[in-house]
Amino acid sequence: MGHFLRLVAFILALGALAAGTGALLLQERHREQALERQLLEAPALEAAHAIELVRAHHARTQRGLLLLSGLAFACLVTLAVIPARVAAPPPATDPAAARTEMRGLESLARATNAQRVELDHEREARHRSEQDLHLQQLLANHALQDKVRLGRDLHDGLVQTLYATGLVLETAAQKLATTPAEAAEAGQLLERAKTTLNAAIREARGTIGGLTPDALEEQSFPEAVHAILEHLDGGRLRERRIKLHPELPAFAEPLRTELLQIIRESVSNALRHGAATEIDVHLAPVAASDPRLRLVLRDNGRGFDPAAVTRGHGLDNLAARARALGATLAIDSAPGRGATLTLTFTPPDAA
Predict the structure, then answer these.
(1) Tens digit of each residue's pLDDT (9 = 90 or more) over 307-339
(2) Exposed/middle/buried for 268, CB within 10 Å: 0-12, 13-18, 19+?
(3) Rounded distance, CA 327 to CA 346, Å?
(4) Sheet of 339-345, strands arranged across
(5) Less CB within 10 Å around the terminal CB: N or C of the chain?
(6) What is the pLDDT of residues 46-85, one digit of tens each?
(7) CB-CB neighbours of 309 under 10 Å
(8) How many whole angstroms separate alpha carbon 164 and alpha carbon 268?
């Protein structure tokens, strides 16, 4: 057994010897006390018998102590005679087994490396596939956005131009039918219709190319606003009031185009749906210390209920253009009292 076990056995042997000795001494003490009481209580004739009992008791106690001492001595001799067990030396390594184990570890390392390379290839292929899918989604979104933009521009631009041309032709036809003497004025209206048709052709070409209308692009913003109302009038308006703040900034694209399209769509709606004869266009700062601008378009047409009206491309386009500018759009109208459109926005250079 090891040194630790030998020490434990030695301690246990000493403990057993001490415990046995203590128990015998305690038992001896109790018996002596019992005999003393008997001697004090017993008659004189029994004294000799009590003495014999005491001697016998002492003899038993001595034999018990000798037995415990013998057992303890035997344990100590056993611990001293039996040598400690020497740890067995490690088994000798077999060279062939070691080479086999090394070859197995090498094969395992090669297989693990091959799996890692394969996983890397699969990860790269999956990453490329995700990139291709993302690119396709971007292209699809761009195509959809281009389609929506093209439809909005055609509706707010070309359709309104053609509508204005129709108004001019209708007015010319009425003049020819009612008063033949106004043939000269009707001829002027027809010439004007020809001009608007040419403008519609140029605008269609600009829209297809993703450009703004050439005529409006070459003009300042106030000139473009006057040109839009002149273009859409068709002889129907008795009065148009345009009030633009003299210190307006030079609007850059796309803000300039969006504002002009909003004005054109709103005026066209007032003429076509509301049969308006008066149009007010105001654009000025909200307040002296406020960087925001407010565009107000007001007409005296038939009006409508904004909550009950069937929404079409016109109102939807106005809302979409306002969102594109980060602006707030409010429409106040009711049957019989015209309509007022208010657009509040912040120019990019003042944001």
Answers:
(1) 877 655 578 888 889 999 999 999 999 999 999
(2) buried
(3) 7
(4) 239-244, 278-285, 293-299, 339-345, 328-333
(5) C
(6) 556 656 666 666 667 667 666 766 776 676 666 666 555 5
(7) 13
(8) 8
